[in-house]
């Protein structure tokens, strides 16, 4: 029997608001434990939540970016359960009537475009953090408690781990482009759970699903789903039955482990949050949000393609991160040789980002200077080889390329007379090679170029050197 | 002058300590504050609207750096880190807070017998209950231990004890007064309100504590009238009182019924219109009230889990033990009963049949009132079916206890303002209260009518 997988994702994205969802506490990551807290997020007796409008706006941005219906009225609900890092004993979330519903996102896989439906996007508060394995104790840090999260729930439209990976990276790209989430999966700002089941290929019946959690990278999601699908196929193929359960991906061991069943048989007893009125999103506000929506990856790609006329491959790379595209476009303000910018970016800059494990924001060369450097090559002030030298210099000593060139006396020699003199000198002092050239060994030509470059410390204009050398040597052949 | 008044109140509190009205008394602080205020007046400085008004605060309202027990063992040693909005407002207008009053645990009860810190006695007959849950506040006012007391009213918790203790008690419209700092029992029902010995004190204090609060998203931005300055401006023409037929049935004590008829005659003689009305869904109010309030309470009380603050059982073996043993040990029986009931109401498979249906019934009850207030300005009824009952009389029968709230819960279901006006005594010399309800945000009208009845009908001197 051939099987196919049915996968739905639940993605949580932590919103980049300054303050928490229902109080004024900071959302800053990495502060000492229990310093970003107040009576409201600690659930002290008598406190009430106040909704952060920015968080609602961010949720709507995501809804608009994924073609969702933005519901005019939506309501918050209490999700009741006991856990030590949940101070109120309930999480304020949305249940019936979320902010956004019925959207979709188109992904491209193996040259096929496919729509993945998004059932809903709702807004909720995060819980605190339990730190286990501290001897006999569990420590609690409530800094994260009350930080706004959106939950994006897809329809079971995903069929392969690869599709899931692509979908997730698209979502990650979108939230970053929208400026609503930093997309950092390792730190948990973006989290993904998956519902997985298998069925006979082509069938319409849904099998029993399992929920896979604890996948904190896109690679983990792909690996875990592969593993889980294999596991389910094996069970069903050998006549077994899938048990509905929650599973945890163990990335170190590359296996899936069941979560203790005790913790999952929850009846959350959802009911409308009586402390918060119905949220109304009026047309006027919605229009303001729509008009100010940051440019989305797909739209930016199209625009950049037509604006810069560089290959699709380059555009794909340059738009993988919003900051890449920003860097490219900023540089493009200083030179119109767009292909060169792209070349420098894809070879030199990406290499350095990888080697030094830094983000483009931390990259030391300003777009302005890269633009200037490219200009200096194109107007033949320096050669490409020297440019590389200047580039390396700028990595350690941030300054403008013109200054570095001046300081280090690196300006290209383009005076034909000077080059002629040097060429003449080289020909005279390399008679053996001249002889070989005259005998037809064209290969030694490179030797002469090298010698000229050595004489000029690499500053000679290479095309002029080529031209003059060829003239002189060919004259000798006659 | 102010100092003398505070000293007298403190002496009363001390002399009547056995009534157990207060859980904590701020003796030194209130005298100190009285001195400061007198100095302010002496120096000709401007003073607040409530300068020298002595206020007692129900112990489910947060005062910074003071204990906030809610009458529960689970918060026995809990100190609030902040002031409730009403407290901020009172202090800003130079009121003096004299202490925290006793209450049924988490405001759940109609007799004050559910306090973890002892029962409160009715000053008219110490063998009887003062009503609840704001029993301490009602007794503090009735026994002249303060000028005004803050209470909270979720289903009658201000009006019923005010009726049992012969004082005025006002439950404002839902949203009129900020709930920020009121420990939640049932969030969509809870209201902070006032108890006083006269209508004018209610009006003056309501002026100060009302209004929109950024910290309470359910508070209203309706304009706050100058309740005290317009209290004598009762519009006498075209005022109609509705008398709901459903409120005068068998369970009503005859003394009370007669007194209400007496006042209806008085109103007629003052050329007010009387109209018999019907509130067809009102018979569901007690059931509806207990379904919805327990549901909300079960969630609101989840935070008392022994993890972050409050009492915690020693050496639990597991997190589950910590929860269950802490909550079993430190919650009282009535609170446990309501948490269980509310948890059931919200459970999968029962939600639609109970919670959802009860919400629909709530809307029907609201609609009954909306219809009624298209025709009448006030709805008149008894506040309670009986006068103060004996301590222990109903503790074994929660249902009969719940019926003490039969006339009061509907105002909370609908969100309407309502007032208890003391109108006399029964054959046992126990106070009788009548209730007036008015349309949303018509506290001004309620206070005007209360003031009128106070000065034109009620010749009985209150107090002991």
Spell out the key features of this protein.
heterodimer; A: Arc Repressor Mutant, subunit A; 3 domains; 3-stranded antiparallel beta sheet; elongated; B: 464 residues; alpha/beta; Amidase signature (AS) enzymes; 14 helices; 11 strands; 36% helix; globular
Task: Give the total of domains of chain B.
Answer: 1
Q: Termini distance of chain A?
A: 78 Å
Q: pLDDT under 50 segments of chain A (min length 5)?
A: none
Name the chain pair whose interface involves the most residues. Answer: A-B, 29 and 44 residues
- What is the CA-atom radius of gyration of chain B, in angstroms? 21 Å
Query: What is the name of the CATH architecture of chain B?
Result: Alpha-Beta Complex
Question: In order across it, which strands form the biggest sheet of chain A?
Answer: 2-6-7-10-1-11-12-13-14
> What is the H/E order of chain B?
HEHEHEHEHEEHEHEHHHHEHHEEH
Classified by CATH, the class of chain B is: Alpha Beta
How does the helix and strand content of chain B classify structurally? alpha/beta
Number of domains of chain A: 3
Measured as a percent range, the helix fraction of chain A is: 25-40%
What coarse outline of chain B follows from CA principal-axis ratios?
globular
